[in-house]
Amino acid sequence: MRILIIEDDRETADYLRKGLAENGHVVDHAPTGPQGLAMALESIYDALIVDRMLPGLDGLSVIQALRKEQVKIPVLILSALGQVNDRVRGLKAGGDDYLVKPFAFSELLARMEALGRRATPEEKVVTTLGLADLEMDLLARTVTRADRPIDLQPREFRLLEYLMRHAGQVVTRTMLLESVWDYHFDPQTNVIDVHISRLRAKIDKGFDEPLLHTVRGAGYTLREPA
Amino acid sequence: MNLPNLARTSAFRLTLLYMTLFGASVLVLLGFISWSTIALIERQTDETIEAEIRGLAEQYRGRGLLRLVDVIHERSADHADQDNVYLLTDPKLGPIAGNLTHWPARTDAGGWVQLSLTKRENGESIAHHIRARTFALPGGYRLLVGRDTNEKDKFRAIVNEAVNWSLALTFGFGLIGGVFISRRMLSRVDRISTTARGIIAGDLARRIEISGSDDEFDRLAENLNAMLDQIERLMTGMRLATDSIAHDLRGPLTRLKGRVEMALRCPPEKGQDREALADVLAQTDAALVVFDTLLKIATAEARTDPADLEPVDIASLASDAAEFYEPVAEEKGIALDVDTDGPARIRGQPQLLAQAIANLLDNAVKHTPAGGRITVTIGNRGDGVDLAVADTGPGIPEADRERVLERFVRLEESRSSPGAGLGLSLVAAVAKLHDATVRLDDNDPGLRISLRFPADPDTEGGNGAAPGTKDRLR
């Protein structure tokens, strides 16, 4: 992906640039709002990382200006402002995702890759999802693996659906909390891990090749057997 | 308090304005009375003159000139009635009879004329104004009948005097009243200012004195005192928060520093470095969680704008949270039940409420031994909504129950369990934000924490209408 970082703090920008480049992305950096807006308007980027507090023009205004110009690049907002209202304001301004500073790089990377995926036009309505021999019917709300039916609770179904929609990508615990449970806080206990191990017991137990993997220090991924 | 200072008070200015308005209205009122009275007197004078002329003309017509001359002599000689003026002239305007020396130079269209005479009274010459009317008699004779208008002038003088006196009195009383009221108001405002200055100087416990008269100053003082109480509460909370941050972050930060120093001292061995770094990361995350929670508590305690609260079905929030924790409970061998009687709507912030419920469940799961039971109960109780989380863990001794709601309080028995000790303080802060009361009771055995929320005023009577349904509002 070609990513533009609009961030005034040079250290953060360097850290992001280095990390993203290591993961195979091409990264440009703009230190001010107006400069970032001008570069983003060139429409050569696949995704944007925008800090909220920027010199010249604040991050939300940059995004609003882009959306006004019908530029639909996915935008991840980075901010030290982490209240529920701040998040709502950021998403209302046209941001696609909101990450509060300080953040783990693995969290940012996972979210950027999820955003990049969203950018590729996949507008048509999907009614079935499949990965290897795992099949998911979103209308009948049934799941089978190797034609054997798997019985899932509604929330487990949503969890699996999210993982399948992001198959091959790393999905963090926070992403799952936000998308599957709509919780914007971290529970003190690792509840997500327990949910995942339950799901794993249902979809992987008794099959030769596991599909659901734990990515240490980052999260989980659902991927085809090698 | 000096006078220039007094003149700058709004009370004094208001009194002055009021006084001016009052004076003007007195002026207008008296002016109108005098004008209409004078008009009445003038009309009466005119009517009298007309009647007399008619009478004299009749005398002339009926009994001839000589009789008229007699009558005029008689009337103008009457010393008792010096106010009447008569003059009868021949066609060449030569006087025949009357007490006026010569015919006036000009008269207006209706025959009316205004004369000025100088009379000697008690040795002083006084100017008299006379209103008169001329009348042409058959045969070219002319008749003039007039009345002294001094009566009217006297009346006007009386009215003028009255106006002057009332204005003087109005201004006099107004000024005295203004000074009096201003002094009174100033003394009370000054007392408030003095108190405020005292508070600014650092005496935060000072409050404005209430006179007990229950007037607007007392109301102002009450409101200011309530505001000061709230500010003091917030400041105390803030001081507590900073103290707690200093206290409880020093721990993880010291450990962090120690870990880094130790790693730096050790000979570089790849595996150990990584282990140290992972440890450092975990410690940093722990510190960040404390920060984040403290921030949330501070925000909740600062009370948000009521407009930020939205209708929330707390029953569905609790069911979701219980469902979220159910696998963890099951793994520990704890039964987790939810008991609701349908939607329970309140006004609130869903994310904070969800976190508060999650914290309660987290706490319960942590402290309940295997084979225990956690029960979440949500019930509509007419004027409010009850939410209770009960466990069968060790419970909290009665003496400690209040304390656990404070920040960073972890009872000795639970020191071994993970957690920064902020979970229940966040619950308390969120409860306060929602005007809910928190109670800790003995579940016999175990702990029962219950929150009572006021019902959402907009859905009065709507709660619990459909028992057993679990609809989500959001």
Largest sheet of chain A: 5 strands, parallel
The termini of chain A sit apart by: 24 Å
> Strand count, sense and closure of the main sheet of chain B?
5 strands, antiparallel
Helix content of chain B: 40-55%
Given the structure, what is the number of helices of chain B? Answer: 8
* Uncertain stretches of chain A: none
Quick tags:
heterodimer; A: 226 residues; alpha/beta; Rossmann fold; Arc Repressor Mutant, subunit A; 2 domains; 5-stranded parallel β-sheet; 4-stranded antiparallel β-sheet; 8 helices; 12 strands; 39% helix; elongated; B: 474 residues; alpha+beta; Beta-Lactamase; Heat Shock Protein 90; 3 domains; 5-stranded antiparallel β-sheet; 5-stranded mixed β-sheet; 53% helix; rod-shaped; disordered C terminus
Structure commentary:
- With 226 residues, chain A is of the alpha/beta class.
- Chain A is 39% helix and 22% strand.
- Chain A folds into 2 domains: 2-119, Rossmann fold (3-Layer(aba) Sandwich); 128-222, Orthogonal Bundle (Arc Repressor Mutant, subunit A), CATH 1.10.10.10.
- In chain A, the strands form 3 sheets. Chain A has a 5-stranded parallel beta sheet with strand order 2-1-3-4-5, sandwiched between helices. A 4-stranded antiparallel beta sheet of chain A has the order 6-7-8-9, covered by helices on one side.
- In chain A, helix 2 (33-40) runs parallel beside helix 3 and helix 6 (154-165) packs across helix 7 (173-181).
- The longest helix of chain A is centred in the middle third of the chain and has 15 residues, at 105-119.
- The mean pLDDT of chain A is 89.
- A 5-stranded antiparallel beta sheet of chain B has the order 2-1-5-4-3.
- Mean pLDDT of chain B is 80; it is low at 410-420 and 464-474.
- In chain B, helix 5 (270-301) packs parallel to helix 8.
- Chain B is α+β, with helices and mostly antiparallel strands.
- Chain B has 3 domains: 3-103 and 133-159, Beta-Lactamase (2-Layer Sandwich), CATH 3.30.450; 216-301; 306-459, 2-Layer Sandwich (Heat Shock Protein 90), CATH 3.30.565.10.
- Chain B has 8 helices and 12 strands.
- Classes of the chains: A alpha/beta (226), B alpha+beta (474).
